[in-house]
Each structure stands twice: as structure tokens, then as C-alpha cells.
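Exercise (ungraded).
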Amino acid sequence: MADEAQPDDATVLQARDHWNNVYRHKAENEVSWYEERPDLSVSLLRSAGIGLEAAVVDVGGGASALVDALIGAGQAHVTVVDLSAAALDRARQRLSGASGIDWVVADARAWRPERHFDAWHDRAAFHFLTETGDQSAYVAVLKSALLPGGVAVIGTFAPDGPEKCSGLPVVRHDGKSLQRLLGPDFDLLGSISHEHHTPWGSVQKFQFSTFRRRGTL
Ligand SMILES: C[S@@+](CC[C@H](N)C(=O)[O-])C[C@H]1O[C@@H](n2cnc3c(N)ncnc32)[C@H](O)[C@@H]1O
């Protein structure tokens, strides 16, 4: 991890300000990525063998209802990581009183996890990393967080999806491009296409790829 490129402070601060501004000024269903029920994410985690006893981290989880769905089903532990404190405050208020949740304000490129996880989930955060140094810093954090045998579900805009999200450029992916970036420590278990319907009725083409972590920490 120590020899991986880390984002410079200015980049981290710029991203944090952008996202805090979004979550402070837009209602939950005024953002394109709003999803009332994260059914696909839950089903991909379950089909990869992630049971209720597993520890799951939702990276770039924002104000997503994934944590509600998992904890509501009886998930033993969920950590939600996001660089926006405003996003996490929103979700935390919704779930006040729930146990088994850690809320972590951190940039996924520089996060130092304090525990290991059985599953890593990311819907629409990784695709904002457009520089190779940022992508490899993220992969280094993923490797340090996910147990061998653990599962990573990564949802991004698909190759025929939008070129921007929240006004920011994205890199569109498929299973193969993600496999190249994640490297030989991960086996691609499968990829599926998904059409996300925004709150205003437009369609965004996503892909979700599921990987299993090999080897040792
Ligand atoms: C398009 S939103 C998706 C939110 C959530 N995953 C969902 O499905 O509703 C992207 C999220 O990623 C977060 N994010 C963007 N870049 C990040 C980074 N480098 N580290 C951590 N979070 C990041 C943003 O704050 C935002 O909450």
C-alpha cells in the first residue's frame, strides 16, 4: 500500500466539496442515481454467497438505501464509506437507532480500513476515477480491505452509458476493463447489464461486475 500513488490533498478537497454541495442542495430523489430499492445490489451479493453473517462495506455509498436493505434483512455488519459527510449524515439520520453500522467519512483512494470485509460494494463511485494513479490507489485500498475469498461487486456506467455523472467525467467500464484494473488477485465471476431509470424517467446503462478476491492479504 505504501508504494501506491495517493491522491494529492487538492484533489481530495475538490471532490469532497463537490459532493457535499450536491447532498446539501438536492433532495434524495433529485439526483440521477437515486434508487428507491437497491434490489440488484442485494441480489448480486447474495448470489455470490454473501450471507447475513458477513461484513459488507458500501464504498461511495452516499445516502443509498443499500445499508437500510441489508441491516433491515439482519446483516451482521455494514460499513458505509463516503467522502461526503453530508451524504452520510442523511443516511445516518434515517437509520438512527440501528446497530451494526459504521459510518466512515473518507476518500476511497486514501482510506485506511480498520477491519476486514467479506464483501465490497460500489455503485457509481469507482467510475469517477479517471486517472490511472487514482484507480490503482482505489484497488490498493480494496485489496487491503477485502478478505481472501471475499466478493467485490462494482457497478459503473457501461461502455454505452453516459459520459458524465453529477456533471463530472466518468470512465465507463465492462467486466474486462475492471478485471484489467483489479489485476490477477481478483477473478471475474460475472457481469450483467442494467438499465437504471432516473427519477425523471431517463435511462442510464450500467454494468455490474462481481469479483472474488484470491490469495492472501
Ligand atoms: C453517483 S453517487 C452514488 C451513491 C451511492 N453509491 C448510490 O448508489 O446511491 C457517487 C457517490 O460516490 C461518492 N464518492 C465519489 N468519489 C469518491 C471517492 N473518491 N471516495 C469516496 N466516495 C466517493 C460521492 O460522494 C457519492 O456519494
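Further reading is listed at the end of the chapter. For now, observe: The chain has a mean pLDDT of 95. The helical segments are 9-25, 39-47, 66-73, 85-94, 132-145, 175-182.
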